């Protein structure tokens, strides 16, 4: 048992776009940084030339070496370290389709969150980790092994994202629509358990929408200059000239990452879900919204403000964007949000369907888009059975929507009644990693 107020648990939610970490019982995560890392393969570079440079950078940034078969990789974690352009630096993500594919990167992200951001010793704090509803047994055991063997944590608990979102809004039963960076998942939660058979997911998340926006802007002849590729030079007071800089050794993945950061800001600033399904003719003469890019040029965004968010409701719209035509081959049977919700509810028992219809929770960064809640509610009212009372709930505060999984974890780990649920180190030593299935359903 880990009762008592002295030891506070740590809650970590590693999403496909951002990693959130902080202390249980607080109302927002202390550390929020991108869950991608910059990686430099040491074979590419002759170390001698680099020694003088890196020694000065090492002190500022969190840098790890991980041994790989073909040589050393230097990993740069955290928004500052990734935001700094380096020659030959690739941007890698440890998560693909919601599943961890590279544990070395996950390890360096956890390490950065615990030691650099929260400045704690993991040996002294129990850890509550959020995991996707579709996590496999193998993934969970691997997580437990890493946490107990490498970090020596005293206790661990793995909780499903959807369950935590449910707790954050104070409901034991709800339908959680979690739209994050990498994907959108609809999961019914009943009495604090995810109904696995009814979970449905789609690959359309915030990053996909950002890609669509970038392609659409490119087709109109607008190129987004990454921040590192120019510098501003003052000619007269408050008048600037842009000087292009040339970095031949910048990798393609880093260039894309830098453009994406800007494109996703455009998306968050100007996009909003349209009230009715998007129609090319109706939106063709809509007033333009200006947006100033970092290099000083102002672009005008018209129909795209509504077209991009509408892809969530009608995925086939993506094929009308130049450069995204092959989307249908990658994901032929992707469904829109309302269809996913109804399909998911229909796979549940008849007696809980009414309750699920009346408590649909929106969570995740993409779900905090303007007008999304109203549009989803409107579409569901049209498609759902007559008897159902449809209610889509979303916290008015967009911070709460973005961090709802983390907040749910924070509430759960600070409850007194939860303290006997931890999977402790002694149990791990006695029963092994597979025991995590019994302790964390």
Task: Walk me through what this model shows.
The chain is built from 16 helices and 22 strands. It is α+β, with helices and mostly antiparallel strands and 441 residues long. A hairpin with a 5-residue loop joins strand 18 and strand 19 (298-301). Helix 6 (206-219) crosses helix 7. The longest helix is centred in the middle third of the chain and has 19 residues, at 252-270. Mean pLDDT is 89; it is low at 48-60.
What's this, in brief?
The protein contains 16 helices and 22 strands. The chain is α+β, with helices and mostly antiparallel strands and about 450 residues long.
The description of the largest β-sheet is: 6 strands, mixed
Overall strand count: 22
What distance separates the N and C termini?
Answer: 19 Å
- The name of the CATH architecture of the domain at 206-331 is Alpha-Beta Complex
Strand content: 15-25%
Overall shape: globular
Rg value: 23 Å
The assigned structural class equals alpha+beta
Number of helices: 16
The CATH H-level superfamily of the domain at 206-331 is ATPase, substrate binding domain, subdomain 4
List keywords for this structure.
441 residues, alpha+beta, Actin, Chain A, domain 4, 6-stranded mixed β-sheet, 16 helices, 35% helix, Actin, cytoplasm, chromatin regulator
List the helices and strands and how they pair.
Layout: E1 10-14, E2 18-23, E3 31-34, E4 37-41, H1 47-58, E5 62-68, E6 71-77, H2 79-83, E7 90-92, E8 95-96, E9 99-100, H3 103-117, E10 127-131, H4 137-150, E11 155-160, H5 161-168, E12 174-179, E13 184-190, E14 193-194, E15 200-202, H6 206-219, E16 230-236, E17 239-244, H7 252-270, E18 289-292, E19 298-301, H8 304-310, H9 327-330, H10 337-346, H11 350-357, E20 360-363, H12 372-383, E21 392-393, H13 398-402, H14 404-413, E22 423-424, H15 425-431, H16 436-439
Parallel strand pairs: 1-10, 10-11, 12-20, 20-21
Antiparallel strand pairs: 1-2, 2-3, 4-6, 4-7, 5-6, 8-9, 11-22, 12-13, 13-14, 13-15, 16-17, 18-19
């Amino acid at each position: 048992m880990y009762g008592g107020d002295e030891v506070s648990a740590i809650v970590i939610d590693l999403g496909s776009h951002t990693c959130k970490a902080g202390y249980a019982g607080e109302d927002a995560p202390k550390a929020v940084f991108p869950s991608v890392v910059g990686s430099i393969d040491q074979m590419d570079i002759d170390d001698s030339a680099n020694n003088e440079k890196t020694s000065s950078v090492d002190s500022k940034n969190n840098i790890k070496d991980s041994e790989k078969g073909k040589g050393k990789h230097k990993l740069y974690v955290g928004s500052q370290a990734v935001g700094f352009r380096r020659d030959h630096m690739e941007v890698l993500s440890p998560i693909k389709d919601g599943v961890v594919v590279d544990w070395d990167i996950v390890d360096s992200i956890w390490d950065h969150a615990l030691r650099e951001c929260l400045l704690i010793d993991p040996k002294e704090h129990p850890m509550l980790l959020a995991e996707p509803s579709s996590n496999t047994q193998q993934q969970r055991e691997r997580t437990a092994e890493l946490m107990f063997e490498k970090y020596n944590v005293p206790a661990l608990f793995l909780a499903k994202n959807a369950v935590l979102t449910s707790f954050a809004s104070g409901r034991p039963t709800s339908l959680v629509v979690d739209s994050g960076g990498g994907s959108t998942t609809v999961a019914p939660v009943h009495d604090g358990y995810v109904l696995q058979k009814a979970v449905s997911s789609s690959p359309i998340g915030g990053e996909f929408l950002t890609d669509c926006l970038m392609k659409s802007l490119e087709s109109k002849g607008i190129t987004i200059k990454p921040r590192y590729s120019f510098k501003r030079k003052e000619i007269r007071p408050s008048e600037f000239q842009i000087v292009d800089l040339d970095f031949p050794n910048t990798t393609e993945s880093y260039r894309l990452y830098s453009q994406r950061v800007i494109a996703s800001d455009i998306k968050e600033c100007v996009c909003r879900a349209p009230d009715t399904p998007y129609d090319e003719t109706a939106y063709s003469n809509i007033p333009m919204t200006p947006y100033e890019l970092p290099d000083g040029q102002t672009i005008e965004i018209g129909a795209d403000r509504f077209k991009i968010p509408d892809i969530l409701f009608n995925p086939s719209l993506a094929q009308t964007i130049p450069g995204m035509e092959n989307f249908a081959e990658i994901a032929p049977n992707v469904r829109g949000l309302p269809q996913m919700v109804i399909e998911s509810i229909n796979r549940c028992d008849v007696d809980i369907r009414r309750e699920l219809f009346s408590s649909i929770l929106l969570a995740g960064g993409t779900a905090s888009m303007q007008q999304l809640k109203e549009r989803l509610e409107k579409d569901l009212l049209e498609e759902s059975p007559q008897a159902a009372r449809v209610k889509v709930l979303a916290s008015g505060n967009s911070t709460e929507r973005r961090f709802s999984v983390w907040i749910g974890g924070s509430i759960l780990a600070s409850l007194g009644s939860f303290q006997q649920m931890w999977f402790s180190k002694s149990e791990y030593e006695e029963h092994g990693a597979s025991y995590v299935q019994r302790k964390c359903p």
